[in-house]
Amino acid sequence: MLSENLIEIKDVNFAYGTRPILTGISMTIPRGSVVAIMGISGSGKTTLLRLIAGVMKAKHGEVRVDGQLVNDLDQEGIYKLRRRMGMMFQFGALFTDLSVFDNVAFQMREHTDFSEAMIRDLVMMKLHAVGLRGAHGLMPSELSGGMARRVALARAIALDPMLMLYDEPFTGLDPIAMGIISNLIKRLNSALGTTSIVVTHDVHEAMEVVDYVYYLSDGKMVAHGTPDQMRNSTDPLVRQFVYGEADGPVAYQYPSRTLVDDMRLGA
Amino acid sequence: MLARTAASIRGIGSRSIDAVLRLGYAARFIARTLASSGTSVKRPRLVVRELYFTGVLSLIIILVSGLFVGMVLGLQGYQTLQTYGSESALGVLVALSLVRELGPVVSALLFASRAGSAMTAEIGLMKATEQLSAMEMMAVDPISRVVAPRFWAGVISMPLLAAMFSAMGVFGGYLVGVVLIGVDEGSFWSQMQSAVDFREDIVNGVIKSFVFGVAVTWIALFEGYDAPPTAEGVSGATTRTVVTSSLAILFLDFILTAFMFRGV
Fold it and tell me: Whose CA, among A160, A184, B73, B101, lies 20 to 30 Å from B247?
């Protein structure tokens, strides 16, 4: 029987050498939900995404995806799991030597025995879903940032994944492109019956589309809740992040000696 | 003074350890490339595509350079041979110089600058723009999909380019020696035919160019794959490809020549 949660993370610790990145992370992500992992730059959210995708393995604790313990999988097992995942990278990461069509068809050609006629139909359907059917003949260099992100999304959903991972999907986009991407994340999630994890620090856009938010700070899970709970949170750290306050628990000044010492005012 | 000496010794030691570590990493990289070559065999179109980029697009520079090198050999050779009254041996001199040495070595140096640097820059930029990570996320191994086809394309195209370089060089020598200076055409070709040995000269030349092909392509691919994912990192890796490949070619040429042409 399928577990209600697609992702279950229990007490995960991860470090680069001796530098701890994640400490004591536990979270669950139910099937069919859209969940945001938020936090300031360097808080460990992309590392957490990589642990879920099996790019890196947790030193301590458990990362389970669809019941499989990712820590224990070998390369073949990880690749098998990843065939059921799609990932949209921060700037699209389209293959620059392939056209839009070939980018979307890439996974189909690599992992299936579909005929070219069937691949053509499927690619056109995926491109239609992101509104870029007419751009199938263009090269990535001919696309705007927003279009590249949409093609990357079409490529990521090429094989109807059970899990979609979005790494900073809104970075560097204009408001219109940002609205299109956030709308697509929500729409595709329900249309494909997939589960989505959005790693972002774009609070307002993400809050509109996600069902639940996990907030990371310094590699620790400091808060979680629905978007409304996060907006109304009294936790100073969450408030500073959600309302973009310049100073607060995350200090404006980089740690330094006192102003008196640095300016030699006492001399 | 003592502290400075100790620091410099430590620096040398640290750089040596780094170099050995990198060499080990490069050895593991080539072993993984060879082990992941199944896709290149099953899908030869991947290799053919890369053959176009590494081989066909290098043809112009190889052919033009071969022609000029052959013409220079014709001129210089004639000057020297004339002193001993052996102008008729011009064909032999041109052919042996090209087939044994200049063909494999100069074409490999040109290959490293033209195709090797392009391979490094391409793979380095694929890494910097997360294309390799995207491939891994799609459960496609970048070593078997991106690196191995390029490796085999480089290894296949290098001996072919060297052969074309030598053929064009012989033609250049013929143009200068026979057409321009007036050396007897019959003796130019017949002496060349009798002096150039298939096993000793041509096969050895092909072996050399094959070894250079492996070395240059290996270095180029490794530098690209190992490049720090920044603009500076990719430019540094491209420079290292050309420098390291050139030194490797000349070093390997010495070693191979010492083994191949002893007492011949």
Answer: B73
Residue A213 contacts by C-beta under 8 Å, 6 or more apart in sequence? A35, A36, A38, A206, A207, A224, A225, A226, A227, A230
Q: Is A243 on the interface with B (CB under 8 A)?
A: no
Residue B49: other Cβ atoms inside 10 A: 15
Q: Does B139 touch chain A (CB under 8 A)?
A: yes
Report, as an integer, the average pLDDT of A80-100: 92
- What lies within 8 Å, CB to CB, of B142 at 6+ separation is B126, B132, B135, B136
Q: CB count, 10 Å around CB of B240? A: 18
- Burial (CB < 10 A; 0-12, 13-18, 19+), residue B53, is middle
pTM of the model: 0.86
Residues 44-83 on A with a CB inside 8 Å of B are: 53, 55, 78-80, 82-83
Helix H, strand E, coil C: the string for A39-69 is: CCCCCCHHHHHHHHHCCCCCCEEEEEECCEE
B19 Cβ contact partners less than 8 Å away, ≥ 6 residues apart: none
Look at residue B182 and give its three-state secondary structure: coil
* ipTM summary value: 0.82
Token pair for residue A157?
Answer: 């959903």
Domain architecture of chain A: domains with CATH: 5-233 (3.40.50.300)
Q: What would the pLDDT profile of B27-44 be if each residue is shown by its tens digit?
A: 999 999 999 998 888 889
